[in-house]
Amino acid sequence: MGTRTDDRRQPASPAARSRQLWHEVTGELRRVVWPTWRQTLNYTGFVVLAVVVVALITVLLDTVFNLAFGAILR
Fold first, then answer.
1. Domain that holds residue 61
2. What is the tens place of the pLDDT at every residue in 11-42?
3. Which of 16, 27, 62, 72 could form a disulfide with 11 if both were Cys (CB 3.0 to 4.6 A apart)?
4. Quick one: which H or E segment has residue 2?
5. Domains of the chain: total
6. Can you tell me the distance from the alpha carbon of 64 to that of 72, in angstroms, rounded to the nearest whole number?
7. Model-wide pTM > 0.70
């Protein structure tokens, strides 16, 4: 077992590594399939609705437990 050689070597300087990272990041962002405006609105609406439903359930449970414990502790 010898030493492992790698064809892709890391650039030596921090500036060169930063340029390489920036190049890789922009390359990946070009391949992203971005949602349409309509899809974005639909997803946002679903998230807002889900947050409202969870908030209402939380308020309901808090009220029920508050009344129950208040009745028990009297």
1. 50-74
2. 689 899 999 999 999 999 999 999 999 999 99
3. 16
4. none
5. 1
6. 12
7. no
